[in-house]
Write a structure and sequence with these properties.
single chain, mainly beta, 8 helices, flat, PLC-like_Pdiesterase_TIM-brl, GP_PDE_dom
């Protein structure tokens, strides 16, 4: 194939926030080889003639134009996509920058540029049309970025999160403004931030941005806070988001404002107090904490109760790039999917029992042979951290009391049993005890390999037809309203999810996969 070369001027219109930069990445070395760390940094045309990478805070309502001329060589057709990020100086030797991807174009087919057409346009004096971020090939697709080497911290408020002690304060409507406290970036008396310089070639790092969302229609996506934060309602669910490279030094300052006037009036809310959340308060992957709300005289006037979640990037992941993603892809024109629940259906109910034991390789293969598009199954970890397929968080072990011939069942969490121990067990279930008298294990009643319980996730990938998709439901203990259901000493959620994902990325071979969970933090 003949090699070509020419200068291509990339231009895109995009809405950005202060501190954000637009970049492009593509399938050639000149375009970064799909690696966001090696992407081409565009310049905001409003920033010229100083070639500033940032646009001023006064943006066009339609977005600003970002551009860069790049000399391309190689094949005639080359592919690329745009993304919006924050650039930071890297502390690691050999790395010139850290890239915090905020949004990126998620089209299945990336943009394309023809060098032949670009050469022809240049000879005719034709200007390149301006691309619009997220719009391509008749589709509007923008994906949120993923965690590369930074951490996301969430503060979650619900119910009676704000408990004021004085009766007159209890029924008032409050808004909360969350501000990051960063040891490496301190606020001065003039309201600016005193940060150490990070070099001549990169934009200066700005303080961690806080976003907020609500569990309401139209408000569920994280967005910037308003001047007085966001109104908290006891019947709602509010989440603050912060992404940082240094979670050990990041704390939060929360200001509380009272809204005494009806909504829509010009009167500003009244500042009544504040709370501080320090890094020492956020030690585990997730937890619950209470901190005092101090009034303007620095005396406590109430208590703030909150949950927190610390989301870390996948440890030892496969090294994701921007070549392609099916993260939010759903073909809307296809027929409904036929999904085999636990394979061929549940086998542990007193009525309508499946013909094969649920959550076994045989059940999955049987569903595939009967035309199932997907099979759904439940995954959690054994004591030796093997992803195993089983519905319940606890298994039943049979034991015999002293001086008694009767067998009884003892519940034990799957997390407390090694994988080999599980594979050597004969499975029973409480729903079966009313109908069947359990008489112990005999050599002649052991199941065949495909019908044995507790197959590993890896075994399912290797044994089930590649054309059958997987709906992998990730099990994790949840505390019920009455306080039951939790398991003490359970796995760290980040490590738990990483181990399951590592098995998926190692074994998927292009299989269609959907993840699901009843635990929202697992999905996050």
């Amino acid at each position: 194939m003949a090699s070509m070369s020419c200068e291509v001027n990339f231009r895109v219109r995009s809405k950005t926030r202060p501190g954000e930069t637009v970049c492009l990445v593509g399938d050639t070395p000149e375009l970064g080889g799909w690696d966001p760390h090696r992407a081409v940094i565009l310049h905001c045309e409003m920033g010229r003639p100083n070639e500033s990478k940032f646009c001023p805070e006064e943006h066009s309502e339609e977005g600003d134009i970002w551009s860069k001329s790049v000399h391309l060589e190689g094949s005639n057709i080359q592919h690329y996509r745009y993304f919006i990020c924050r650039l930071h100086q890297s502390d690691r030797e050999g790395d010139c920058r850290r890239v915090l991807v905020r949004e990126w174009e998620g089209h299945i087919r990336p943009r394309r540029v023809s060098l032949t057409e670009e050469i022809s346009k240049a000879s005719e004096g034709d200007n390149k049309l301006i691309d619009v971020f997220g719009h391509y090939d008749g589709l509007h697709v923008i994906n949120r970025g993923w965690l590369i080497d930074h951490v996301e911290i969430q503060l979650q408020l619900e119910g009676e999160a704000i408990q004021m002690w004085k009766s007159k304060h209890k029924e008032q409507l409050y808004s909360i403004k969350c501000t990051p406290i960063d040891n490496s970036c301190r606020k001065t008396k003039g309201g600016t931030f005193d940060c150490e310089p990070i070099g001549d070639t990169l934009p200066q790092s700005i303080p961690t941005e806080i976003e907020v969302s609500f569990l309401e229609k139209g408000k569920s996506k994280p967005r910037p806070q308003l001047a007085f934060g966001a109104i908290f309602r006891p019947d709602g669910f509010m989440t603050f988001y912060a992404q940082t490279y240094d979670p050990e030094s990041l704390g939060f300052h929360l200001d509380f404002y009272v809204h005494s006037s009806p909504a829509g009036t010009d009167r500003e809310p009244e500042h009544v107090g504040s709370s501080f959340i320090l890094p020492i308060d956020l030690q585990n992957a997730r937890g619950e904490q209470k901190v005092p709300i101090n009034g303007l005289s620095n005396m406590p006037i109430g208590i703030l109760s909150f949950k927190y979640l610390i989301v870390k990037p996948m440890c030892g992941g496969p090294g994701f790039d921007m070549r392609r993603t099916f993260q939010s892809y759903l073909k809307t024109t296809r027929r409904p999917l036929d999904v085999g629940h636990r394979g061929l259906g549940s086998s542990y109910k007193s009525k309508k029992l499946a013909t094969m034991r649920e959550n076994t390789i045989g059940s999955f293969q049987g569903a595939a042979n009967h035309g199932a598009d997907f099979v759904e199954f439940d995954v959690h970890l054994t004591k030796d951290e093997v992803p195993v397929i089983y519905h319940d968080l606890k298994a039943l072990i049979t034991y015999r009391k002293k001086k008694s011939e009767e067998l009884e069942l003892f519940e034990i969490p799957v997390k407390d049993l090694m994988f080999d121990q599980l594979r050597n067990m004969k499975l029973s279930h409480p729903a079966l005890q009313a109908e069947y008298k359990y008489e112990g294990i005999h050599d002649n009643d052991l199941d065949t390999v495909d019908l044995q319980p507790f197959p590993s996730l890896e075994q399912a990938f290797q044994s089930v037809d590649i054309h059958t998709g997987f709906n992998i439901e990730v099990k994790f203990p949840q505390t019920k309203i009455d306080g039951t259901g939790n398991l003490s000493g359970y796995f760290d959620m980040n490590r738990f999810v990483d181990i399951i994902l590592a098995s998926v990325f190692k074994n998927h071979s292009g299989r269609r996969i959907i993840f699901s969970s009843f635990e929202p933090d697992v999905c996050t």
